[in-house]
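Input record (Table S2, row 416):
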Amino acid sequence: MTTLTRASGELRLEGVALSEIARRFGTPCYVYSRAAIEAAYREFDASLAGVEHLVCYAMKANSNLAVLDVLRRLGAGFDIVSGGELARVLAVGGEASKVLFSGVGKSEAEIDTALSHGIRCFNVESDQELERLDAIAGRRGVKAPVSLRVNPDVDAGTHPYISTGMAGNKFGIPHARAIEVYRKAAKLPNLRVTGIDCHIGSQILETAPLEEALDRVLGLVDALAHEGIALEHLDLGGGIGIRYRDEAPPDIHAYGRRLVERVRGRNLELLLEPGRAIVGNAGVLLTKVEYLKLDKARHFAVVDASMSELIRPALYDAWHEIVEAGDTGGRPRETYDVVGPVCESSDVLGRDRALAVRPGDLLAILSAGAYAMAMSSNYNTRPRPCEVMIDGETAHEVRAREPISALFSAERTLPR
Ligand code: LLP
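Output record (LLP complex):
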């Protein structure tokens, strides 16, 4: 569902013109559409109708409290990867019983806190983590719910930096060792083996590798059942891609229906952990053109957003569509590299973009709802932008722009 439209030349997100957002809140600014987030979540949820299921939003994609709260109200669970993310879920009144804890490096403190809140399940990634979890649960006198993250060794066909399901990757327990590690888990006194999971990568555009991963994991479920280890849930992770440019992302409904077909009648709850597909195209990064540098060799549009606010182009060579937010009045377009003020040659938001812009004009960098603010930094002592959520005709500031003083308020000079 797209909630981005253009009327009389003006780009609007839901019922609000982006120029109005810039006037009220300044730039750079992330702007999210509540309706788009809700529609994407509902599509996942509805696609799994007919089997017991829970869609656990992978909040690393965008962990703003308002985003979490909108999803919590719809009944979403959450996939977390740190104690910080758990704190955010609890801050919006999320139920720990709908929280999955993923990640290869859970610390003792993180595990202990998560146990104290009674989260739904730990997605365990190694033998040593299993032992650590058992020991901490023992000290607390509880049984920790465990799922093993299995690396199914399938090629997700995505960027190597965001592909996680192949052998030789740091993630998960190799498929060949899964049964042996399950046997061990089943013997540890303070663990309760409840599920199995995998996550093979991100920005996946074909569902075949995901379905292959499901089949491999279902094979393990059957083998484990033979050994008397009955699992209650299967978590297929996230990874469904979105359209940034001209990609044809999978149809979520069709994907969900195929998963349902495969698990129906098995007495397994189906869990998914989508992140990008829920929020990615629900947000834009609004930025203002500061200068046009018209060098002979190249034309640059220098904007007030940078790699500090959107690192994906610099980090993955990712493409984000960049469009004029206001009326261009039919002026001819010229080709620019859209660059930020940060002192790095890689501070490029888009190369060779045809734009009709003048200094002071607004640009919208699209598909910035996922892994944008979430991966932002204060590099060059740049305050993080504000975040605004549109709800119909109303714009809510859901995070204030960072005051510069806050950037160094925790720092101290040496005693004189
Ligand atoms: N579950 C696990 C265990 C994950 O590691 C991830 C993402 C997800 C779920 C959600 O994946 P999604 O549905 O969003 O694809 N920063 C990169 C993406 C890194 C993804 C890391 N793991 C980017 O900007 O493209």
